[in-house]
Amino acid sequence: MVYSIVNLQAATSTENLQALEEVKDFCTTDLGRGGKERWTYHMLPEAALDVELRRMSNATSSTSVDSVTFQPCAAYADLNQDRYSIEEWELPGGVWQFTAIYDGHCGHDTVNYVHKRLPSMVRTSLQALLQSAPTTSLKSEFVSEVLCNAVRHLDQSIRSDLLGFLPHDRLTKMSDVQLNQHVSHHYSEWDAISTRCTQGSTVLLALSDPPKKNVWILNLGDSIAVLGSRSLSGKWSAMIVNSVHNCSNPSESQRIRQEHPSEQACVCDNRVLGYLSPTRALGDTWLKVPSVYTRRAFAPHLQDWLPPRQVAQYASRILTPPYISDLPEVYHHSLDVSQQELLLILSSDGLQDLYDNHDTQLSDQEMADRWVDLVGGHMHSTTDMDLQSNLALRLLRDAVGGDNTELVSRNLTLEMEDKWMDDITILVQRFR
């Protein structure tokens, strides 16, 4: 055996100092998990934190709405699955404001589909309503119905695409060879349909009329809306607008158990069928149709989906679908911007998750109070002008650590391949 000898020169003192200088601002953390594993993060100076947070969250502002959407993990599979819309519609009677957050899960296809199609569906239906009824005599329940129907029709279109491609009676009669041929001959169509049916998206949207006298808020899923109002004395108060549609909400778990009374596994491990936390969503069609679609269509003909053992487990629990609801809840609030200043915060559930992980545990109302006090206070602040120019960014900064520069640095720069926080999207709308 021949050995090669390599001579390495010892580093000079200057080189050693340079190496130490390069790593002096790096730290490690176990993320509070215990054990031996550690992850590295970069301590950033205060002046750089806001700049980096603004860049990473794509912070933007319009006339009346500030927005951020944030996911610090750069791994491709974990890219941000949140989407949002901020639109103004010139319709009969004036300009309507539409804002929405779509929180996708299990992939990007369904949330992209919802993001692309839902605003235009709402606008078309609203325009038809306004053309048939003048704004002055418009009943709030008519607008609520427009919003609800648009969401349900969109979900129905996803399901109809599946049933049109593969009707239930035909699927049950087809042999495996026939099914394979049908899918392979129309693979591009099947690929689009199947991904939308095995992924999902929640929706939280707000619609305000031209004089800003009314706002409608629709929720389908586990995002949250908070309405803030400032009295003449200057004190802000917060109201949580919507109930949350996930298995942590006892009324939602109870509803599912009542709809499937003999099925103990309909809610288990705090998830629907042990799989999904949101109880209402667009898509997730495989949990809304008979299990034969899961066993014979999705499992064999959808790449990179669930492992076979999990497919068999979940399919055995699908007895009386649907298990995920597409019925949203719509809330209407009358506004009086002449008497009080108002703001509306829409956020995906990732924001609340960050506060749940804080050392100081807050109730839902305490959390809402904190959000409104912080955002409302900075609407008139003469300090922190950079963050004050985007109120959603101000709230995000508080959530990722606030004045704790070490915690903010860790949340922004952690070197970890898996997500260390959920996607976060925040929209702050000002009514004046």
Short descriptors:
single chain, 432 residues, alpha+beta, 15 helices, 16 strands, 22% strand
What does this structure look like?
The N and C termini lie far apart (83 Å). The chain has helices at residues 13-23, 46-56, 109-132, 140-165, 168-173, 176-185, 187-198, 250-259, 291-301, 308-317, 349-356, 364-378, 385-388, 391-399, 405-413; strands at residues 26-29, 39-42, 60-61, 65-70, 82-91, 94-105, 200-208, 214-220, 224-230, 236-240, 267-268, 271-272, 282-283, 329-334, 341-347, 424-431. The model has no long low-confidence stretch (mean pLDDT 92). The strands form four sheets. It has a six-stranded antiparallel sheet. Strands 5, 6, 7, 8, 13 and 14 form a six-stranded antiparallel sheet that branches. It is globular, with a radius of gyration of 25 Å. The protein contains 15 helices and 16 strands. 41% of the residues lie in helices and 22% in strands. By secondary structure, the chain is α+β, with helices and mostly antiparallel strands.
Topology:
Elements: H1 13-23, E1 26-29, E2 39-42, H2 46-56, E3 60-61, E4 65-70, E5 82-91, E6 94-105, H3 109-132, H4 140-165, H5 168-173, H6 176-185, H7 187-198, E7 200-208, E8 214-220, E9 224-230, E10 236-240, H8 250-259, E11 267-268, E12 271-272, E13 282-283, H9 291-301, H10 308-317, E14 329-334, E15 341-347, H11 349-356, H12 364-378, H13 385-388, H14 391-399, H15 405-413, E16 424-431
Antiparallel strand pairs: 1-2, 3-4, 4-16, 5-6, 6-7, 7-8, 7-13, 8-14, 9-10, 9-15, 11-12, 15-16
Helix pairs in contact: 2-15, 3-4, 3-7, 4-7, 9-10, 12-14
